[in-house]
Design goal:
Layout lengths: L11 H6 L10 E8 L5 E4 L2 E8 H14 L3 E6 L19 H12 L4 E6 L12 E3 L2 E3 H18 L3 E4 L6 H11 L6 E8 L6 H7 L19 H13 L3 E5 L5 H10 L4 E5 L1 H12 L5 H15 L3 E4 L2 H8 L2
Parallel strand pairs: 1-3, 1-4, 1-12, 4-5, 5-8, 8-9, 9-10, 10-11, 11-12
Antiparallel strand pairs: 2-3, 6-7
Helix pairs in contact: 2-3, 3-4, 4-5, 7-8, 8-10
Bound molecules: ligand PBG.
Length: 323
């Protein structure tokens, strides 16, 4: 008997009827870069079309996003150079930019689900995610600072903290610290399988947080590894993660799928800065149709198994798909 798979592809109607994966505004997490000052909105040169905003401008942006149906933002702050050190002091400042931003955003837009980056690199004079001792990124000393940082974000009103550092044991330590301080409702989105990759380059430009020496390969994962991602994800689930993340997304679609098959909690993927810039650069040269590239790649990330996607393309996706 003749099988004719093209029957299901013959018109827009039937193609729409049998489409398996659909992007929704509910699944998008919008990263925001915040800097000190007022009235500032600076385009990040290696992230064309994306901005670093002062807090007042950020509040306007959050309102715009909320009106578009976006439900979650992921906050990153740019720390002034003179406030950086090797102890994460500014990361714990109750009046630091992160803490002020969380409070202001929750006040201006209480329904917005606020997630915060927990890692020391933007605050580190070495540009590393942990405390440095004789060129080593110290694990346990860093974890205790990260736990305090998470509590400080919870105190400011964060709904969920997102540790992006890849230190061992930090999810358990953060859960414990949150419980001890009665933040029973503060969640953890763990960057569980976070790879050492060239694709974070533009992000490090955005926050001026590139490592001052060496690279991040003693804590972020080797991009050639698959089973290690499963081990990392399992540990984070055991330690109390509410959501696990794979990062980057596009070059790691296989990992997203394996993680999705492995765990029974939501999986997120971070479509990272370099992945955004690649599409932007090709589109600027007229080599790719930008809108088509955005929808195809983001849909692929969801198809691979990501329930949630952190992406710099959120507003474009909403515009293109008229969500
Ligand atoms: C830092 C952090 C990084 C990103 C998110 N959190 C960079 C890094 O690990 O060097 C990258 C995000 C992106 O590239 O979009 N802990």
């Amino acid at each position: 008997m003749m099988k004719r798979p093209r029957i299901l592809r013959q018109s827009p109607a039937i193609r729409a009827m049998v489409q398996e994966t659909r992007l929704s505004v509910d699944n998008l997490i919008v990263p925001l870069f915040i800097l000190e000052g007022e009235g500032i909105s600076e385009e990040i040169s290696s992230l064309p079309g994306y901005f670093r905003n002062s807090l007042d401008q950020t509040l306007k942006e959050v309102e715009t996003l909320w009106k578009l149906g976006i439900k979650s933002v992921l906050l990153f702050v740019k720390c002034k150079n003179e406030r950086k050190d090797n102890a994460g002091t500014e990361a714990l400042n109750p009046n630091g930019l992160m803490q002020r931003s969380i409070k202001a955003i929750k006040q201006a837009c209480p329904g917005m689900f606020v997630m915060t980056d927990v890692a020391l690199d933007p605050f580190s004079s070495y540009g590393h995610d942990g405390i440095v001792k004789e060129l080593e990124i110290v694990n346990d000393g860093t974890v205790s600072v990260l736990a305090k940082m998470a509590v400080s974000h919870a105190q400011a009103g964060a709904d969920m903290v997102a540790p992006s550092d890849m230190m061992d044991g930090r999810i358990g330590a953060i859960r414990k610290a949150l419980e001890e301080h009665n933040y029973h409702n503060t969640g953890i989105m763990a960057y569980s399988a976070k790879y050492a990759t060239c694709f974070y380059g533009p992000f490090r430009d955005a926050l001026d947080s590139a490592p001052g020496f060496g690279d991040k390969k003693t804590y972020q994962m080797n991009s050639a590894n698959r089973l290690e991602a499963i081990r990392e994800v399992r540990l984070d689930v055991e330690e109390g993660a509410d959501i696990v993340m794979v990062k980057p997304a596009l070059a790691y679609l296989d990992i997203i799928r394996e993680v999705k098959n492995e765990v029974h909690i939501p999986v997120s993927a971070y479509h990272v800065s370099g992945e955004y810039s690649m599409i932007k650069a090709a589109a600027q040269r007229g080599w790719l149709n930008e809108d088509d590239a955005i929808i195809e790649t983001t849909t692929a990330i969801k198809r691979a198994g990501a329930d949630l996607i952190a992406t710099y393309f959120a507003k474009d996706i909403i515009r293109i798909l008229d969500l």
